[in-house]
Amino acid sequence: MESITRKAYAKINLSLDVTGKLPNGYHTVRMLMDSITLYDDVTLTPNTSRCITLSCDRSYIPTDDRNLAVRAAKLFFAETKIDCAGLHIDLVKRIPAAAGLAGGSTDAAAVLKGLDQMYGTRFSLEKLCKMGVQLGADIPYCLCGGTMLAEGIGEKLTPIPAPPQAHIVLCKPDFSVSTPDVYAKMNGGNLPVHPDTAGLVAALRMGDYNGLCHRLYNVMENVIAQKHEEIGHIKDVLFSCGAEGAVMSGSGPTTFGLFRREEAAKAAYEALRREFTETYLTAFQV
Ligand code: ATP
């Protein structure tokens, strides 16, 4: 069997709402997500080592069972009962980690799709999603990609028309956020302000770029921004350079701006890159 390399795309949240808390402790969410052109390379190479091993070009990423890509491979072989003679997974990481961009989940999704291709199991997307959700609520979205309304714990997906194309400047300030800590502050979804999800969906259906930009909203942003002034600062720079909208993605801290004009996006990229090394100029993945 030959090696397979797959692109694992990052996601951003155009909105994020926490709507409740289940008896098992999981929070329910309602969020609009989109894939962007920033991606990791995930290469799967079968061998005869009788082990599943992983290498990665970033030393801070775990290479053992803590890595979601390894766990996805183990899950695939356990579920299919295929005898794994050995597999090596190599990750070329471009997506910042612990950033609200689903970096680990998208690698896991790429492993599930890659192994499905390699072993000819030809599972439906639905079946792969059922497998993936056992490892993480964002994995079904990463398997599907595109513009989706995600509800439930994030696994109930409804396709929505893609946003009008825009230049996206993405900036991850130099601190990490603990996702469970942020959820703990969400008061079980009993929050004073929620995103206008219906308005956002309507704006996307109408191709209304301004309507989209005005409704970008993440209920977790204030919690993080109160403790870390970088979020507000990044948004100030994005808006002062001409962004039509800006918001934090996921549980943060990556914050992005949408721009119609390429020159404005480039100016924001240059300005933020001087302060934050993890700054990217990207676009929606179509
Ligand atoms: P989400 O948006 O789903 O909350 P995230 O972007 O905040 O995801 P990840 O990039 O998935 O977070 O990383 C969270 C932690 O998961 C990291 O600190 C890292 O140690 C661990 N991890 C496990 N597997 C991976 C992987 N393949 N790539 C990156 N991080 C991984």
Tell me the layout of helices and strands.
Elements: E1 4-21, E2 27-46, E3 52-56, H1 68-80, E4 87-92, H2 103-118, H3 125-132, H4 139-144, E5 148-151, E6 156-159, E7 167-171, H5 179-184, H6 197-206, H7 209-215, E8 217-218, H8 221-227, H9 229-240, E9 245-248, E10 255-259, H10 262-275, E11 279-283
Parallel strand pairs: 1-8, 3-4
Antiparallel strand pairs: 1-2, 2-4, 2-5, 5-6, 7-10, 7-11, 9-10
Bound molecules: adenosine-5'-triphosphate.
Describe the model.
By secondary structure, the chain is an alpha+beta fold. It is built from ten helices and eleven strands. Strands 1, 2, 3, 4, 5, 6 and 8 form a seven-stranded mixed β-sheet that branches. A four-stranded antiparallel β-sheet has the order 9-10-7-11. The model has no long low-confidence stretch (mean pLDDT 96).
User: Largest sheet, described in full?
Assistant: 7 strands, mixed
The overall strand count is 11
* Terminal Cα span: 30 Å
Class from secondary-structure proportions: alpha+beta
Shape: globular
The assembly state of the depicted protein chains is single chain
Name every ligand kind in the structure.
adenosine-5'-triphosphate
Please compute the radius of gyration using only Cα atoms.
19 Å
Helix content: 25-40%
> Count of DSSP helices?
10
How much of the polypeptide forms β-strand, as a percent range?
A: 25-35%
- Average pLDDT, rounded to a whole number, is 96
Low-confidence blocks of residues: none
Note the run of SSEs as H and E. Answer: EEEHEHHHEEEHHHEHHEEHE
